[in-house]
């Protein structure tokens, strides 16, 4: 799946990932390829991502995630 992680001042990541774990407002959740469309609020925590290059982590203070047509966009604070 294609992933973009954006903060107000810069793009933190853009590329392909096999798995994404996000700190949702109602609890942590994961996304895999071809996930159903969704929008969810995010709370402060760590975004964990598995890519072909290995594991990556990004600390966020909250935000929103949108999943649509195998593209994930994380708008993070």
- N- and C-termini, Cα separation: 22 Å
CATH architecture: Sandwich
The residue ranges in which pLDDT falls below 50 over 5 or more consecutive positions are none
Query: What integer value in Å does the Rg equal?
Result: 11 Å
Task: Categorize the overall geometry.
Answer: globular
CATH T-level topology: ATP Synthase, domain 1
Features:
77 residues; mainly beta; ATP Synthase, domain 1; 7 strands; 75% strand; globular
Give a quick precis of the structure:
This protein has 77 residues and is mainly beta. It is 0% helix and 75% strand.
What would you say this structure looks like, in words?
With 77 residues, the chain is mainly β. It has one domain: Sandwich (ATP Synthase, domain 1), CATH 2.60.15.10. It has strands at 2-6, 11-16, 19-24, 27-32, 38-51, 54-68, 71-76. A seven-stranded mixed sheet has the order 2-1-7-6-5-3-4, with no helix packed on it. The chain is globular, with a radius of gyration of 11 Å.
